[in-house]
Amino acid sequence: MRVLHVYKTYLPDDFTGVPRVIHALAEGMLPFGVKSEVLALSASHGGTTQTVDNHVVHMARQDLDIASAGLSLSAFSLFRQRAREADIVNYHFPWPMADLLHLIMRPRTPSVVTYHSDIVRQKNLLKLYAPVQNRFLSTVDAIVATSPNYLRTSAVLKNFPGKTSAIPIGIADVPPPTPELLQRWREQVGEGFFLFVGALRYYKGLQFLMAAARKTGLPVVVAGAGETTEWAEMGGPSVRFVGPVSEDDKMALLALCRSFVFPSHLRSEAFGVALAEAARAGRAMISCEIGTGTSFVNLGGETGLVVPPENVPALAEAMRSLAASPEQAGQMGRAARHRYETLFRAQDMATAYLELYRRLMETRQQSVSRFSR
């Protein structure tokens, strides 16, 4: 089986969010005999074909970037060529350019949309784009949400009940951090702190975490890329910003923290892979109820605490509660690890997608057979 994944960006330009999911699918399906390719845009690597681990990446040249949506003329011919060789085309939404590729080029292969998020921020542009979006989603064969929560709460997905399902995002197991790395981080930030890991973006709710840190005085470590000046001024002396970290460093910080805190307050946070990573590390979590996959990964009262978004007193109280009860934090951490093992492993995600791909291919073959009689 040959699968073509289509998204606006990928390695070597980007390895956050959606590209990480695509990578996990491409590598995770290799043992099943699935050959994966990725079509993406790049301003610096356009026109190149590269090998990333065990799959191939085709980069079309990005000509324009409008509201974080890359556009490319050369992508049309590249898509026609690669889709012709594929058994399944898997689009990753949202990316309006993918809608155009599908609607204009009309690939004959079965098509899947992995629906990562509603369009939240570009509300004015959405009014113009909505007819294209709805036409695109109505013509693909299957739509996959990344959690039952998002499938249930998305106003867009409610319009396509006959073709939607949920497959949780899965992540791979990783080795524990080395004693040397643990000691290096212990000397730098201590242990027993509350940890946030992620890009410092508008929807992450860092302003509320900073206010809660100042209110409680509890130690908080923030790891991730982005401008820190504004946040640092808000957080007070108990907050440490350590900047972007490697995967190994992330595991060390997770091993040293008391709890993982994830204050995202907008639906742009559709799943929260960082929460799944915290669950993998066996750490209690604090997150906000925003009607998305964050409350699917973190079950309030079981794997951690869930508080209302943008609510500093509630967030501060959750932090105080876990700080005052290491036993509770440990119990929730063990439950989080069990939930990871049950729902969020990369091989489980790959198996579920493989079953979907095979079902779509069989349905298409049956349709072709009936038509040819």
Question: Can you put this structure into words, describing what you see?
Answer:
- It is a single chain.
- The chain has 373 residues and is an alpha/beta fold.
- The chain folds into two domains: 2-170 and 346-372, Rossmann fold (3-Layer(aba) Sandwich), CATH 3.40.50.2000; 179-343, Rossmann fold.
- Helix content is 44%, strand content 20%.
- The protein has helices at residues 18-28, 74-85, 96-105, 123-139, 148-153, 179-189, 206-216, 229-235, 247-256, 273-280, 294-297, 312-324, 326-343, 346-372; strands at 2-6, 35-42, 49-52, 55-61, 64-66, 69-71, 88-93, 111-115, 142-145, 164-166, 194-197, 220-223, 239-243, 259-262, 284-288, 304-307.
- The strands form three sheets. It has an eight-stranded mixed β-sheet, with helices on both faces. A six-stranded parallel β-sheet has the order 13-12-11-14-15-16, sandwiched between helices.
- Helix 7 links the parallel strand 11 and strand 12 (220-223).
- It is globular and about 65 Å long.
- The mean pLDDT is 93.
